[in-house]
């Protein structure tokens, strides 16, 4: 009887798990390398944040001496203090996508995102996609998407170890900080694999350098948004809603959403702003209640891209697509519209 049960479990696992998820890290690495040749010029595209930048650094190291050249390109404008500090302290060389000539490159790689997360990605045909966000069925010859992982940096650490590469101090520090950041010091979604990657990196990283990135100073011109958030926030039980109007960078929505999660009794913070003709809505919760990614998708996914993880999510909506539903210029009406969308749909998820 025991043998029959074990065999049944093996069959069930075989049915449930995709073939790619069952293979070893070494075989994944080999399949990744198969997609490149020595003549290739590779462009890594990211929506720059600590996890994306660290993962891109790792891909660049993996392809060193395997291809003719590698560059990293960001689609977003980087103004968030920790991102700027990470670029400066770890010597990350980024080229904004608007300054890139795609014809110079023969292969395109995406890490910590998927093509339909942002319209800027859609003009590229990707050779490889490595990500830890929910699977949106992208089109690429090589895909490694693991939504249960806390950080893409954890996945890239496995690739480095499979390649028997000892990471430099700066690379290890970047990956180390990215795992800390994306898991919120292991308070958010985390697997044992994230912990193993972190433990490995701890022996090669510079914690003092990581702390300098983490404690990067807030620019003085960001303070006005904190004042606005405190003066205009609306509270619905344990939820805090803030609409900032036009922002110089959507990262300010992230900073303020994280700030409110440090306030006693706040279990959700939803912060929105307008940037480059798009409505940006950032969701944070304590990870105990409903799934933030599902709430974001249920409430705002019908108007634009929306999704994320259990405790953190994001929606981006073209303003033109909601202009007939709400007065964009009236910040109070805008906030009330967002609240209605979320409160009406949150109960479904």
Look at the structure and name the CATH superfamily of the largest domain.
inorganic pyrophosphatase (n-terminal core)
Q: Give the helix proportion (percent range).
A: 25-40%
The biggest beta sheet is recorded as:
6 strands, parallel
CATH architecture of the largest domain: Alpha-Beta Complex
Supply the CATH class of the largest domain.
Alpha Beta
Question: What is this entry, summarized?
Answer:
The chain is of the alpha/beta class and 349 residues long.
Task: Summarize the helices and strands and which ones pair or pack.
Elements: H1 2-16, H2 19-22, H3 25-33, E1 41-46, H4 50-62, E2 69-74, H5 81-89, E3 94-96, E4 107-111, E5 128-131, E6 142-145, H6 152-162, H7 169-182, H8 192-202, H9 207-214, H10 223-232, E7 234-236, E8 239-246, H11 251-260, E9 268-275, E10 278-285, H12 292-300, E11 305-308, E12 312-318, H13 331-346
Parallel strand pairs: 1-2, 1-4, 2-3, 4-5, 5-6, 8-9
Antiparallel strand pairs: 7-8, 9-10, 10-12, 11-12
List keywords for this structure.
349 residues, alpha/beta, inorganic pyrophosphatase (n-terminal core), Diaminopimelate Epimerase, Chain A, domain 1, six-stranded parallel beta sheet, 12 strands, globular, disordered N terminus
Task: Outline the structure in words.
The radius of gyration is 21 Å and the shape is globular. The model is unreliable at 1-17 (pLDDT under 50). The two termini are 40 Å apart. The chain has a six-stranded parallel sheet with strand order 3-2-1-4-5-6, covered by helices on one side. Strands 7-8-9-10-12-11 form a six-stranded mixed sheet, sandwiched between helices. It has 13 helices and twelve strands. It is of the alpha/beta class and 349 residues long. It has two domains: 15-214, inorganic pyrophosphatase (n-terminal core); 223-346, Roll (Diaminopimelate Epimerase, Chain A, domain 1).
């Amino acid at each position: 009887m025991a043998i029959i049960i074990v065999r049944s479990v093996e069959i069930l696992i075989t049915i449930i798990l995709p073939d790619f998820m069952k293979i070893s890290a070494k075989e994944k690495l080999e399949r990744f390398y198969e997609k490149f040749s020595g003549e290739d010029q590779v462009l890594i595209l990211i929506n720059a944040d600590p996890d994306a930048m660290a993962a891109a650094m790792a891909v660049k190291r993996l392809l060193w001496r395997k291809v003719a050249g590698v560059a990293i390109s960001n689609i977003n404008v980087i103004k968030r203090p920790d991102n700027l500090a990470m670029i400066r302290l770890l010597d990350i060389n980024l080229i904004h996508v608007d300054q890139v000539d795609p014809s110079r490159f023969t292969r395109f790689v995406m890490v910590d995102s998927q093509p339909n997360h942002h319209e800027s990605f859609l003009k590229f045909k990707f050779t490889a996609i490595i990500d830890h966000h929910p699977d949106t069925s992208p089109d690429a010859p090589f895909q490694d998407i693991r939504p249960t992982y806390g950080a893409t940096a954890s996945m890239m650490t496995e690739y480095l170890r499979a390649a028997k590469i000892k990471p430099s101090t700066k690379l290890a520090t970047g990956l180390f900080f990215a795992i800390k950041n994306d898991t919120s010091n292991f308070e958010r979604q985390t697997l044992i694999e994230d912990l193993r990657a972190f433990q490995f990196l701890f022996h090669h990283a510079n914690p003092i350098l990581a702390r300098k990135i983490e404690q990067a100073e807030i620019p003085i011109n960001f303070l006005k948004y904190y004042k606005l958030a405190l003066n205009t926030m609306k509270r619905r039980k344990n939820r805090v809603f803030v609409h900032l109007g036009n922002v110089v960078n959507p990262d300010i929505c992230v900073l303020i959403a994280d700030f409110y999660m440090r306030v006693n009794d706040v279990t959700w913070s939803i912060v929105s702003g307008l940037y480059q003709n798009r409505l940006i809505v950032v969701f944070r919760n304590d990870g105990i209640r409903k799934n933030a990614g599902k709430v974001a998708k249920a409430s705002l996914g019908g108007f634009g891209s929306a999704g994320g993880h259990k405790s953190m999510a994001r929606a981006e909506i073209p303003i033109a697509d909601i202009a007939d539903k709400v007065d964009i210029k009236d910040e109070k009406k805008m906030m009330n519209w967002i609240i209605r969308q979320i409160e009406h749909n949150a109960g479904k998820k």
